Each structure stands twice: as structure tokens, then as C-alpha cells.
Amino acid sequence: MSPWVGRIIILALLAIIVGLPVAWRPEREQVDPDALTLVIVTPHNEQIRYETAHAFNAWHKAKFDQSVRIDWRTPGGTSDIRRILKSQYAAELKRSLEDSDQVNSVGFDMAFGGGDYEFDKYYRRVGVTVHIPGENDKKVAHQLSISQPITFSKDEIDLDAIYGPSGRIAGSKLYDQSGRGDAKPGENPTAHWYGVVLSSFGIVYNRDVLKMRDLPEPTDWVDLTDGKYFGWIALGDPRHSGSVRVTYNTIVQRYGFEKGFATLRRVFANARYFSSSSSQVPVDVSAGDAAAGMCIDFYGRLQAEAVGGNRVGYVSPAGTTVYSCDPICILTGVRDKPGDHRLTLAKRFIQFQLTREGQAVWCFYPTDAMEAPPEDGLGPLQYALRRPPIRLDMYEPALFERMIDRVNYFDEAVPMPKGTPSYMGVINVMLSAMAMDIHDEVKAAWRAMLNEHGLDKLQAMVELFDAMPFEDETALFAAAERWRDDPAAEEADRLAWTAFFREKYRKIVEISNP
Fold first, then answer.
1. Beta strands in 74-190 (DSSP E)
2. Residues paired with residue 150 on neighbouring β-strands, in sequence order
3. How far apart are CA 85 and CA 90, in angstroms?
4. Alpha-carbon torsion 365, 244, 225, 220, what sign?
5. What would the DSSP string read from start to end of 13-68?
6. Tens of pLDDT along 333-364?
7. H or E segment to which residue 230 belongs
8. CA gap 73, 370 in Å, rounded
9. Torsion angle defined by CA atoms of residues 421, 426, 428 and 430, in that order, rounded to the nearest 10 degrees
């Protein structure tokens, strides 16, 4: 055979290998070259981004005869996004003050997803602060909110009809209510952010691994402290994920200061790792690399559906979890300009999310998978997003029956006891010092305790294991106050607490090996 024939055959085979995937890939929607563009920064996954963008484009084109292309930006988790926005807005605020100019956008139009705590505290109340020299070179502090206040007319959005008169679920706000006191009767208040869907937090678990480890299915957070979970729990890192941070904060709130941190310390000692991506937890649990893990509700349900076969389960611990919302906001500096109505487009995106069409995308079955799609076309196209709607009338029987997960958080939610403090401002530092920064040490101490059978020794170990570098939670909150005025104090406390815990864990190991 001629060498040229062999070369031709090889080239033909290469063409087939390269060409078949291209020929068989799904047909993509054509992008309208005249489409309007909206830039949104988000931690949401690809399925959410696809479905919400597709549905909004269809709604906007039908209502305003213009296509919309969403330019999604996904630089990381909620905490990562917050750091980026704070850095960029601090630079923009400083520029505007030095140039005597208005504050402009920083390249993003909206922030979408990440929890009400992030949006209420960091985007609205805290924002960014810069210091610019004033008279006699004395520095003057200037503050800027990262989100901008938005007002909708009742014709655009009726907040009372959507969220209910209180605008809350078990005490948690469903939209920013800082402007409610200024609203005129019969008018919507101005708000910095609006909740789009509801969220809860729970435990995802692998039934096969549980059986192998001789463990019952977990129903509460404390179940994960069982020593049989040692090395078999997957956890997220609260320093990167807002949903993970809320989960850990909720456990301390529900159980109280002492039991809450004692529970977390044991769960962390059982942990295999702390992932910077909260979505990694249910993936590893479903693969059998972990027996259980903590995650946001829809991550657990999506993974259970993806795996199938009843192998993966998810539970929201009754009475000891929290129910909140997943918000959206328009960022400061976004405004309408001649030929570019970016602010109007952003407002329309919020408006769409709160319509029945927008809410159905989050909770109905995908229409592409149906033999007879519904005549009204409500629902996502390809992916079941499995997020409970925030709009109250979606729970009316006719619509409720069409949900893929027939759960009503408005009925299930249990309010926090009155006066329950939040640990959100301190929990990252506390957990870093207690376990995450010295994970090998806490595991070694926990392993020694699990293997110890002498009651006297075990009692001494438990006292060391649960010891805190301060007497009670008032000292913890006092530390947080110091951090506000002296950022270096936060790092100093973290290092001191880490040394304290490390020494306690070392002593536990010594007791087991005298």
C-alpha cells in the first residue's frame, strides 16, 4: 500500500473524530445581533443561568419586541463576588471623589443570588468606605452602597401581593424593607434588593455508603457527629460560600452557643475536606466519596435526581434549619443613557423574575421532557431547577400540583426564638481557628477520643475538646466589635485562638498516648 494512501486514511479518521462531535452537538439558539445586553454577576450554576436567560429573553421579546442577551459573570462563590465588588466599587468611589464626578458602574449591572444576609448587610448597609484628604489634610470617610435603591410601581410589581403583607417568612425578610417606613399608602416601598426564590439548608446523604458504615439516615445536624462518619463527611468552606456560612450560623443559632459550636467541632472533625465550591459537596456524596454533607436544598435535590435509583437522599432538619430567600439587586452606578437603557432593562429582569412565568421556571417540570407540554408554556425548557417559588399565589392548588417538589416552606418554616443572636460576623474566624486551619490536629484529637474506652480519660478529653478561648459568647461578640475599628485585631485573635485550640488537641493526643 502506498504511504500516501495510509496518510489519507489517517487524515480521514482524524476528520471523523473531530467532526462527529461538532455534527452531533445540540443546535444552539441563534443570537440576535441587535439584542440588548445585561451583565449579571452570580454564583448560580449553568442550569440556572441557561433557563433564566432563555425565559427572560422570550418574555422580553414578546412584551417589548426586543431580544436580550445576558452576559453572565461567574468569578466564584458569594464571598468571592462580594470581595470583587467591594474592591472595584472602592476604586470607583475614590476616582469619583478625586475627579468630582458621579459614581459609574464597574462593569456589572446586577448581582443575582447569594442569600439575604449578603445583600442586606454587605451590598446595602456596609457597602464600601474610602478615606480622602479634606481640610488640613485630615482624612474624611466617604461611604457608598454597592446596591442602588429601586422603586417599582404597583402596576409593575405589587410587593404585598407577591410577598404578603409582612414581606417575611418565619421572620426572615423576603425583600429589603429599609424603605417601608417612607412608602406612601398604596405604594410600593423603595428597596435595594428583592427575593426571587426561597432557600433552605440540609443534609445530603448516600444510602449505599450509610449502609456500608452501619449508619441510619440522618435527620438532624447532630446526627453527623457520630464517630462512624469519621473521614466520610463533605463540607463547604464558609469563607467562600455564603450558603455554607448561613448553614453553620443556623446550627449555632438553633442549638445555642455551647451546643452549636460543640456540634460543629465534631462534624468538622469527621470531615474529609472543606471545599471552596458548595456544589462540590452533593457531587462527592452521590459518587460515594462521602457518606453525607451539608448543602443548600436544591443542590441536594438536583443531585438526588441526577443519580437516580434512590441512592441519594436529602433532608432539611425539621425545626433546626432556616428558611430565607435568594435575592437580586441592581448595582450602584447603573443608569439609563442615550441609546443604552441598562437600568430599565435591569428593572425588567427583576419584574420578570417575580411574574408567574418567571417563578414557574424555578419549580415546574421541564417542558422539553413532556410528551404533551402545557398550553400556557410555563416551566423551564431543559433543566429542573427545583427551587421553591417566593410568590405566594404559586402555592394555589392548580399551580402547586405542577411543581416538581411539592414543598411549601411558608407552612414548614419555624421562626428563630425571639432575641436569637446571629454569629455571621464571627463564625468564619471562629471555625477557621477551631478546625479548618488545623484540621489535622482536630482529627487527631477526635480519633483519640473515639478510640478511648477509659471513662476518666474520656471525660478529660471531652473537657479539653470543648474548651473555648473565652468564657461565653459575649466575649466573642466583643471581639467582633474590636475588629470593626481595628482590622488587624481580627487576624491577631484568629492566630491566638488557633494556638489555643491546637494546644488543647495536642493534650488530648497526649492523654491517649501517655
1. 110-112, 128-133, 139-144, 168-169, 172-173
2. 191
3. 8
4. negative
5. HHHHHHHHHHHHSPPPPPPPTT-EEEEEE----HHHHHHHHHHHHHHHHHHHS--E
6. 999 999 899 999 999 999 999 999 999 999 99
7. none
8. 31
9. -100
Compute φ and ψ for 161, nearest 5 degrees.
Answer: -70, -35
CA 287 to CA 302: how far, in whole Å?
14
How far, CA to CA in Å, does 136 sit from each of 94, 132, 140, 263, 281?
19, 12, 11, 54, 55
Q: Tell me how far apart the 2 most distant CA atoms of the chain are, in Å.
A: 91
Residue whose C-alpha is closest to residue 480's, from 424, 420, 418, 437: 424
**CA pair distance 96, 123, nearest whole angstrom:** 19
What does each C-alpha distance from 239 to 111, 484, 485 come to in angstroms? Answer: 19, 18, 21
Q: Strands 201-206 and 324-330, how do they pair? A: unpaired
Q: What span, in angstroms and rounded, lies between the C-alpha atoms of 418 and 67? A: 48
φ/ψ of 203, rounded to 5, equals -120, 125
- Written as nine digits, the cell of 67 is 431580544
For residue 502, the tally of other CB atoms under 10 A from its CB is 16
- Cα 13 from Cα 26, distance rounded (Å): 22
Residue with cell 459518587: 287
What cell does 77 get?
Answer: 462563590
Q: Is the pTM of this model over 0.90?
A: no
- Report CA Rg, the chain: 26
CA 119, CA 327: separation in Å to the nearest integer? 7
Nearest partner of 374 among 388, 389, 384, 360, judged by Cα: 360
The closest of 218, 197, 204, 214 to 362, measured between CA atoms, is 197
Query: Considering only CA atoms, which of 227, 297, 222, 224 is closest in space to residue 252?
Result: 222
Span 137-160, pLDDT tens digits? 778 889 999 999 999 999 999 999
The amino acid sitting at 309 is G
